[in-house]
From TrEMBL, chain A:
Cited InterPro entries: BFD-like_2Fe2S-bd_dom, BFD-like_2Fe2S-bd_dom_sf, FAD/NAD-bd_sf, FAD/NAD-binding_dom, NasD-like
GO molecular function: iron-sulfur cluster binding; metal ion binding; oxidoreductase activity
Name of the molecule in the record: NAD(P)/FAD-dependent oxidoreductase
Highest rank taxon of the organism: Bacteria
All residue ranges annotated as the BFD-like [2Fe-2S]-binding domain in the record: 417-461
Keywords: Heme, Iron, Iron-sulfur, Metal-binding, Oxidoreductase
Reported cofactor(s): [4Fe-4S] cluster; siroheme
From TrEMBL, chain B:
One biological process term in Gene Ontology: respiratory electron transport chain
The organism's taxonomic lineage, starting at the top: Bacteria, Bacillati, Actinomycetota, Actinomycetes, Propionibacteriales
Protein keywords: 4Fe-4S, Iron, Iron-sulfur, Metal-binding
PROSITE patterns named in the record: 4FE4S_MOW_BIS_MGD
Annotated Gly residues bias: 73-84
PANTHER family, alphabetized: NADH-QUINONE OXIDOREDUCTASE SUBUNIT G, RESPIRATORY NITRATE REDUCTASE
Native source organism of the sequence: Aeromicrobium fastidiosum
GO cellular component: membrane
A GO MF term: NADH dehydrogenase activity
Gene3D superfamilies membership: 2.40.40.20, 3.40.50.740, ADC-like domains, Dimethylsulfoxide Reductase, domain 2
SUPFAM superfamilies: ADC-like, Formate dehydrogenase/DMSO reductase, domains 1-3
Domain 4Fe-4S Mo/W bis-MGD-type: 1-59
KW Metal-binding (keyword) present: yes
Protein name: Molybdopterin-dependent oxidoreductase
Amino acid sequence: MKVVVVGAGMVGHRFADELGRLAPHVDVDVLGDESYEPYNRVMLTELVAGRIDLAGLSLPTPDSGRVRVRAGATALEIDRTRRTVVTADGDFDYDVLVLATGARARVIDVPGLGGTLPRGAHVVRRVDDARDITAATLNASTAVVIGAGPLGVEAACALRHRGVAVTLVAPTGLLARDLDAVVASVARDQATSLGIDVVTGTGVASVGVRDGRVDGVHLDDGRTLATGLVVLACGSVPDTTLAAAAGLETNLGVVVGDDLRCTVDPAVFAIGDCAETPAGVSGLVAPGWAQARALARSLARDEPVELPTIAGSAMRLKAVGMSVVTMGVRSSTALPTDRVVSLADHGARRHVELVARGDTLVGVTCVGSPELAAHLSTQLDRPGMLPADPMQLLMGASGPGAVESASPTTMPAATTVCRCNGVTKGDLVHAWDAGCTTVEALAGSTLATTGCGGCTKLVCGIVDWLQATDPAPSSQTTSGVRETNVPTR
Amino acid sequence: MTDTHCPYCALQCAQTITPGGDDDAVAGQVVVEPRAFPTNAGGMCQKGWTSAELLRVPDRITTPLRRVPSTGSGSGGSSGSGGGFEEVSWDVALDDIAARVRAIGEQDGADAVAVFGGGGLTNEKAYQLGKFARLALRTRNIDYNGRFCMSSAAAAANRSLGVDRGLPFPLTDLADADAVVLFGSNLADTMPPAVQHLGGARERGGLVVIDPRRSATARLTDEGAGEHLQLVPGTDLVLALGLLHVVLAEGLADADYLAARVDGLDDVRRSVAEWWPERVAATTGVPETQLRRIARMLSAASPHRGGRGAFLLTGRGSEQHADGTDTVTAVINLALALGLVGAERGGYGAITGQGNGQGGREHGQKADQLPGYRMITDPAAREHVAAVWGVDPGTIPGPGVPAVELLTSLGQPGGPRALFVHGSNVLVSSPDAQVVRRRLEALDLLVVCDFVPSETALLADYILPVTQWAEEEGTMTGLEGRVLRRRRAVEPPAGVRSELEVFAELAARLDAPGTWSVEPREVYDELRRASAGGRADYAGISYDRLDAGEALYWPCPDEQHPGTPRLFADTFPTPSGRARMVAVRAVGPDEPLRAEAPVWLVTGRVLQHYQSGAQTRRVAKLNDSAPRAHVEINPVLAARIGLEGIDDVRITSKRGSIVAQARISADIRPDTVFVPFHFADEGMVNAVTNAATDPVSGMPEFKVCAVQIRREDA
């Protein structure tokens, strides 16, 4: 079987990699229009931030020798009659065609941005975009990021991390699509505290361009932000050009069924950002990877496609200096019967919210609390694991737990002093009463300190305490003398 | 007064055994005391202090026992719990065993007789057992319980570094390091005196413990001594990938070392590109902030950044998984990226569990190996060993199958009909134990050598009483690859024989070729010759040198050689001389959680017991402290299932169920329960565990499976 994948992004790559391992008899050609090997697009803002280098983005080379990734092979046309994909370097025949063409960055329709982008204006979609932005920061002391979704916020933080003065234009608010207003305001405070100037409530009227180069951003409210560097993070649009030209049904994306198959041609599938399933278009990598895996399994084993259900959306910001995680249901999308529990600590720019439905945690939103976010995200959608009182998930979940009393005076007699030999404080006191009044003698009698020696300090402390309370041990003195509950004879 | 080592774990604490004095309690008996030695530094845990009790357990077997068939027993094999035992003479037992082995072999071929060994056997016995299987029984079917503990670490180390020596450096090296990371090890319970070596790292805040439980070892990170990463069970591999991601992404790796000594970086770099910290956090539950912090701390501790060294150590918690080999590989990749392996300061190591877990895996008990860590499929290895044994290479059978596969084939069509068990309580220590019980019961002949009636022995057709620890001479190889002398301090009870005698007697009755000495020193000298030139080369390590007090670590190719305390200083024993980074991918636990089984079960140890508990459960002080299995359960989960205190709970998986007492503790994750594995009967947690195995090593996934938990009376 010959499989051609159009698009060598994260989803196309994952599909080819999985198929190559599951079905070694299959020939797979992956056509990518960039000149790079498949790379991790999710990390592009990390590249801008300088927290990773280019080599760190490259994705694994598919194991199977029958999977060929062709970088720089732009698909020009799909000939569905001949079952071939046309490129400048030749035709690629297929039995099965998988479209993983992804999405394009959306460019807002304002004066200054029509046609080709002016110099100094960048989207953040490809490695070249990220490299261009990084290069621009060498000269630019200011930047304007337009769009305050996750990508825009990450880009703003990355630029700020590079020392650039950043203005983030967020017409509808920061992370407004992912967070409810009260939570978004906390995230905004976080961004502000990093030195990012967040502008809300006004849109972009136009982008100023002089001599083909950006010189500022003009806002709807009349203000002008002078800058030579503009980053556009205004969302993305599924790339359906090729599919539409080939006569496949397209709407927002390439229309496919639950089996990821195109409506008009059973030999063609679409996955990832370009696909529009009955559930819609996703634009996130996790559902795309799930589709890739499901389709690879289905083709390799000749079984129906089984897509895992991914409840709600998930967003984990990768931004230097900010921590925002939201998964599943949130307050504004909760059912009236859900329980919404939140903990607000806005002074510390922290907000945690969780949504319980029956005995399941169905939503988690954490701003400024990466520890809790990590823990709660492992508990999401696990039926039967919710505490009877969902509040318990937030209580005692941060910071160390109760510390046992390590004072020789106040610790209870039953406290184990020497773990290695199972010796309690009470055992030591009894040995003392029997005449073992030095650390050495106590060790000989009880074996305390003779394992790892970790309790030596504590045993010394107990000896000091015993000496203070009972300087001349004799067989009559113990009862009622000490304030602990040592059993009496 | 006799100098020897503790009968239990791989730390092999040095002991002195002296005859009892005037004190009534010990008169006529022996007293065991610790002695100064690098690994235990004069310390000894409760197990060691009470070890003399093993010499006087009330149910010691001193006469061969033969099963008396119960009348009207069911069809199938003759083994099983029906009927009782009768005492028989050694000759009667050995004659009958040999005759039955012969008959089975004539009917179904030599592979119809199988052998299951143990990592507690001395090197001499382990070596002779492998030889016994190949030459006397002529079977390829031999494997051992080390498959359950060290096989994944061994496979990974062999693959990446060219050799498997648990710690390729002395344990005492840890003391100087800035950082020590324990991937799934609970040293403080398994080998308490070893905790002393963590002191230096703790002082510098560099102890990192990775465990779903806040174990006794995890508590050692308290008060600024380090960090505990309380990950989701079964996500160790993802965590290691995430750490390496940060090391590579943030430019924290030792580029010079990688260029000079390591192959495969590019593939590995790509494999971790998919595991960015936020994604790792969502999978493991370890926050990205902590992940980055640990990666940076490890880099700062590494020699290339001027640190005092970092050690990455794996234990069974990270290894006993269906992807255990890949998990260890990911840890080795991390150690290589930091330039630690073979560095003067730092390294990767696996903390061996069983007393002779290291030596036990080097001398031919493994299905695919011959002495000296030679591969049985290697013609040159076969030729060398055959020459030592005085046989034609063609008489040595080919490779057998790993433990789980071997056990599940017992009594099945085409599978073995007879089994010899040495140094293992396989019924309690195998995963999916109910299946193992049925397989053992389906055998026509089960012969168990032991000194107590273990749960496995009670299923046998013959129990042969053998010597133990302080009654025998031999060598053990500790967790560092240092060879240690075990010495006889007391006479064995009358009627008890050493396994070397059992092998010799049976070999004679089976007309086996070769020589079958019953003297440990002679067997060991043969082992030295057999291992010469192999990866684990003992040729230069003699009893005389050991008795003179030399510290000898293998490889030691001749008697003038000083031994090799530290491996990899200049080169790796791989074909290229370079270490190999191997790209691995995270698959996750074999058994996912589901509505009927929403909780992870992890297993492990308590301080008082060792392995299946066959020995420690017979020591009153230990058994009184920990008499039965317990379930460590988070208060949140306890409240959910209506626990009020120390109620009994029932834990059920697809495979079976157990009942144990709840111990409510915030030290464990709310989605996980912990049960120790030392107990039999209703608390035998291996009735619940998953027998799915690692595709490379054959290691079962003891450490994580999906269970349901209920109050027993509910």
